[in-house]
Amino acid sequence: MHVPVQFGFSAVYGFSFAMILSLRPIMIVELFGLEKLSNSFGIMMMFYGLACLSGIPIAGILRDATNSYLVPFLFAGCTIILGGILLLIVPPILKRERRKAILLRRKLHQMKYQTAHSSKPS
């Protein structure tokens, strides 16, 4: 009875994890653009590696300090929630920065146009 349940949970976990992996590049392109995909993906994977490298020792230190596994699990859950909150905050900031860049380009274009037309002899 337990074996089919374990297979079911394993299948759901596998499909869920595969969806997360396949959506990462799409999210990066949507947030930062296609021209920054390779750099953004590299930086993301660097931080992913640092988190994997430091997460286990931190969890061990918390477990040893509290003699309970509850605190490390709560810490891991809080970091996941913090990452989700940051993911909600980043798109509006990027949108505002893009608007600023567009306005700056328009202003520079207008200045070039005005200097080009004002320097013409009558």
TrEMBL record:
InterPro entries: MFS, MFS_trans_sf, Proton-linked_MCT. It holds the Pfam family MFS_1. GO terms for molecular function: monocarboxylic acid transmembrane transporter activity. Keywords: Membrane, Transmembrane, Transmembrane helix. The chain crosses the membrane at residues 12-34, 41-63, 69-90. This is Monocarboxylate transporter.
